[in-house]
UniProtKB/TrEMBL annotation:
Full protein name: DUF1048 domain-containing protein
InterPro entries reported for this sequence: UCP029876
Species per Swiss-Prot/TrEMBL record: Nonomuraea guangzhouensis
Top-level lineage group: Bacteria
Entry-linked Pfam families: DUF1048 (PF06304)
Length: 128
């Protein structure tokens, strides 16, 4: 069996993605960060604060899509001149939790809550 042109490179990239994650996702993340960098300073600071929060509580899978949606929201708000308080409301935590609720897949906290409930159900004989 002979390897075609580019075959070793393809295998290398496959191995690299196993170790580091999707290269396409990394490219999308860099594009997202570039978009955020272009926002006016106040909007950029707000997005970076939300991003920090989302890094702790957001999904592991699908995180780039979620952040791209956040960038869309703040780019549009900046373009329209919508004040940041009108975007996030009086309680930024309430806003980010509502935003995060749209991305339930991949949330580690959701998986841990399910695991906890399942374990307690098993030991108490209340399995569904």
């Amino acid at each position: 069996m002979t390897a075609g042109p580019g075959e070793p490179k393809k295998r290398y990239l496959q191995y690299l993605e196993v170790v580091t994650g999707s290269l396409e996702e990394k490219k999308r993340w860099r594009r997202y960060k570039a978009r955020i960098k272009e926002l006016p300073e106040d909007y950029r600071t707000a997005v970076e604060a939300l991003e920090r929060y989302l890094m702790h509580f957001g999904p592991g899978d699908g995180a780039v899509s979620m952040h791209e949606d956040l960038a869309d929201l703040f780019e549009q708000s900046a373009a329209d001149g919508t004040p940041i308080r009108e975007v996030v409301g009086q309680d930024p935590v309430e806003f980010v939790e509502a935003f995060l609720a749209n991305y339930p897949e991949g949330q580690w906290i959701r998986r841990e809550r399910e695991r906890l409930t399942s374990a307690i159900d098993r030991v108490t004989g209340n399995e569904p």
